[in-house]
Structures are given as C-alpha cells and as structure tokens.
Design a protein that fits this description.
CATH class of the largest domain: Alpha Beta
Largest sheet: 4 strands, mixed
Oligomer: single chain
Bound molecules: zinc ion
Distance between the termini: 33 Å
Shape: elongated
Number of helices: 2
Number of domains: 2
CATH topology of the largest domain: Nucleoside Triphosphate Pyrophosphohydrolase
CATH superfamily of the largest domain: Nucleoside Triphosphate Pyrophosphohydrolase
Helix content: 10-25%
C-alpha cells in the first residue's frame, strides 16, 4: 500500500520536500524524519509433491484475479519469511509445507512506489487437506514444463529459476 505522508508521524509538523541523496522526498523541517519509500516483501511458494508435480492456484482476488499463480503473499511484521510461506500456503489451500530452500529473490518495480521483493521458496507438500478458498478458486498439480502462463512476472521468474536449478 502506498502511503503519502503529509504530516510527520514523529512530531506532527507539515512535511516539506527535502533533497536526500539526490532524491526529493517528503521531510520534516522539525526533526530528522524522511518518508523514504521502502520495498515491500512478499513470498512465493514452489510447492511440489516429491514426484515433480508443482502446485498452482487460480487466483480469486486482485491483482491477477482469475489467473494462475504460485501460492504466496506479503510477509507480516514479526514473521520470518519461511513462516510467511507456510502460513500463506495453509491459508490459501489448506496444505502444509516443509520448506526446503530459497529458489531466489525477484524484484518487481511496481506497487507502493518502493517496489516489491519476492522471496521464492521451494518446499515439499507435507500434509493438510487441500481445499479451495476465496483466494484460490482452483488448485492444480501440474508438470512444470507444461505450466499455464502465470499472472505475475516474479512467479514466472521463480518457476524458470527452479526448473533451471533442476526442479
Ligand atoms: Zn518531525
């Protein structure tokens, strides 16, 4: 979510443009606060069944509503990225994950103005009972070589990276 600060969240003064490291950013004339745009952090899950099949969801919510994607979502405060990966998969599909490794980190230059970093984890489906949810209208186990087009560039990169690493 983009936040357009007009007042200093530390002291309440009206923010004014300030040049910081060559960029003009909203800065507080009374204290050191600068509304610096930071990237958001999300996870994507390459969840496989141990036999080369990959779990995809068809998204029920924007963005990319109705398109195929990897399970995933934003990392919450006070949560580790691997906890976020397990939580998002469970919330969206009812399935449990044993995280194996990080596939890679993918940068998306859109969103809140600070961009998005997507941490893609590879893991094995380890339990639970698969179900559709408002976030995941369909679940599918697919051959990664025959995957439908995914709705997010970071997910396409993660899938290509995982396949290049040998799946
Ligand atoms: Zn201030």
């Amino acid at each position: 979510m983009r936040v357009d600060y007009r007042f200093c969240p530390a002291c309440g003064s009206r923010l004014l443009p300030r040049e910081v490291e060559g960029r003009w950013l909203p800065g507080c004339p009374a204290c050191d606060f600068v509304a610096w745009p930071d990237p958001k952090v999300a996870v994507a899950v390459l969840a496989h069944d141990g036999h080369g099949q990959l779990l995809l969801i068809r998204r029920g919510t924007p963005p990319a509503q109705g398109e195929w994607a990897l399970p995933g979502g934003y990392v919450d405060a006070q949560e580790t990225p691997t906890e976020a990966a397990r939580r998002e998969l469970l919330e969206e599909t009812g399935l449990e994950l044993e995280v194996e490794r990080l596939e890679g980190v993918h940068h998306v230059p859109v969103g809140d103005g600070g961009g998005l970093l997507v941490l893609a984890y590879v893991g094995r489906l380890s339990g639970g009972k698969g179900r559709t949810t408002p976030e995941a209208l369909e679940l599918a186990m697919v051959d990664p070589a025959r995957s439908p087009e995914l709705g997010f560039s970071a997910h396409r990169e993660a899938l290509a990276g995982w396949r290049a690493q040998g799946g």
